[in-house]
Amino acid sequence: MIKVNRLSKAFGKNEVLQSIDLSVEKGEVVVILGPSGSGKTTLLRCINFLEKPNGGEITIGDHTVNCKRPSKLDIHILRRKTAMVFQHYNLFKHKTALENVMEGLIIVQKLSKEKAKEISVQMLEKVGLGSKLDAYPSRLSGGQQQRVGIARALALNPEVILFDEPTSSLDPELVGEVLSVIRKIAREGITMIVVTHEMGFARDVANHVVFMEGGVIVEEGKPSEIFYAPKEERTKQFLSRIT
Ligand code: ADP
Predict the structure, then answer these.
(1) Number of C-alpha atoms within 13 angstroms, CB side, residue 102?
(2) Is the ipTM beyond the 0.85 threshold?
(3) Are 18 and 215 in contact (CB under 8 A)?
(4) Pairing assessment for the beta strands 208-213 and 82-85 based on DSSP bridges
(5) Distance from Cα 16 to the centre of ligand 1, integer Å
(6) What positions belong to coiled-coil segments (predicted)?
(7) What's the pTM?
(8) Backbone phi, then psi, for 145, in 5-degree steps?
(9) Given the CA of residue 36, which atom of ligand 1 is nearest to it?
(10) Ligand 1 proximity of 145 Cβ (cutoff 6 Å)
(11) 63-66 and 55-60 strand pairing
(12) Atom of ligand 1 at shortest range from CA of 35
């Protein structure tokens, strides 16, 4: 479903991703863990070319892109196959919840306004915001704004949703509602790659856990392997610090 081969990315001399290989099966939830600065966000952003990788290959579904020489069409196709949920929600402040979700469907997918509205209402209902369609972001809590962000990603019907620390800007009491929405859509079989520091969530939702440090994948495996029987010293140290 998704294959990343020898992906590399540097900012100047800082080699942030060093030959990353990653495979994600259809319907899988992959959680990426690691200390701050290890390259997790950059990896997600390279998968949809929000950052341009320096080398390697990315395959999503039936489309493979050579990262050194991507065409405009390659980038367009990868972006159509992915959707991202951002740490800071990235909603349009002057648009309502409904308009925020409709935007991509109208502008990118060229759906009619009626069809875009129908899908957007369904998705906002799915994340528990059926009563907030006309609310502006400033009238919504952080957790509600992030749920709009999730509805917006779902509406695009992507092959994979990339979650970049979706709960790390939330007050602790709002984290649960967002994680439960992510859990619910994970159960529906949507393929996801999730960067998070929420270990409890990673343990129950992930099919596969990847531990990154210093721009490399140090260790990966099933949650039971990574959390309860990590092999690498660096993984053990990381987990002992945060769990
Ligand atoms: P993580 O998500 O694991 O915290 P990041 O992918 O955000 O790590 O960052 C990895 C490294 O890349 C850090 O050293 C960070 O300073 C650097 N970095 C990230 N984005 C940029 C950028 N746009 N320009 C320069 N350096 C960056």
Answers:
(1) 15
(2) yes
(3) yes
(4) unpaired
(5) 7
(6) none
(7) 0.96
(8) -60, -40
(9) 4
(10) no
(11) antiparallel
(12) 3
